[in-house]
Write a structure and sequence with these properties.
Blueprint (H helix, E strand, L loop, with lengths): L1 H7 L1 E5 L5 E6 H9 L3 E7 L2 E5 L1 H14 L9 E3 L4 E3 L3 E4 L14 H7 L16 E5 L14 E5 H7 L4 H4 L14 H6 L23
Parallel strand pairs: 1-7
Antiparallel strand pairs: 1-2, 3-4, 3-7, 5-6, 8-9
Length: 211
């Protein structure tokens, strides 16, 4: 189970100029490293160092022999002959294109923006128990845009029906806005696990599409 979790964990991808491009799975990251088209960027003692696949494997073996804290064990891949740490950041060696500048308007990003909270009652629900609500209903020419779509739980959606919040006597917990950067990325940055990403994510490049 830990192996599966580790292979699906997130890795930030930089272009050759150290600009954030997108986020991929660890499985995809190891594929790029093995092909020598990318290198690991690791924060060591307050400085960023780069490693190819072989040198990263050597560093990982040394760390493994030194003993790992229990909370770090889900960030490692174990093979028959060695253990290797899942990198947090990789850099593409031959890719110099600039990052995309627009946040994709899709269900995944809307749920992330609203933190899986119903925007009427304020409670957090699993994605399967939430729907997307038009604040101004389509019947009133409401648009399908960032500022008119919010998460709503089943009960609140049913209560609101085909009315506006004012007509239904309901208040929203916050006004919806178009995100300036990837909502999913911003959720990950709250975790200490991905604190090394912040160095590469200034305001100019926070619109990072997820693959």
């Amino acid at each position: 189970m830990q192996q599966v979790i580790a292979l699906e964990s997130s890795v930030l991808v930089l272009n050759k100029f150290f600009m954030a491009l997108h986020v991929i799975s660890a499985k995809r990251a190891f594929t790029l490293l093995c092909k020598d088209t990318a290198e690991v960027i690791s924060l060591d003692g307050g400085k960023f160092n780069s490693y190819n696949f072989d040198s990263w494997k050597d560093v990982s073996i040394y760390k493994a022999k030194s003993g790992l804290p229990e909370e770090d064990k889900t960030s490692w891949i174990r093979t028959v002959s060695f253990e290797i740490e899942v990198p947090k950041i990789i850099r593409l060696l031959f890719y110099d294109k600039l990052p995309q500048s627009n946040v994709k308007f899709n269900r995944r990003n809307i749920f992330a923006r609203d933190e899986n909270k119903c925007q009427y009652c304020g409670q957090r629900f699993p994605t399967s128990e939430l729907s997307l609500d038009h604040i101004v209903p389509k019947a009133y020419n409401g648009k399908t845009t960032w500022t008119n779509i919010v998460c709503a739980c089943t009960e609140c959606n049913k209560k609101k029906g085909g009315r506006t919040p004012d007509q239904a006597g309901m208040k929203m917990i916050r006004k919806p806005v178009k995100p300036k950067h990837s909502p999913i990325l911003s959720l990950k940055l709250r975790s200490d696990k991905y604190r090394s990403w912040k160095q590469f994510l200034d305001e100019a490049y926070w619109s990072v599409p997820l693959k």
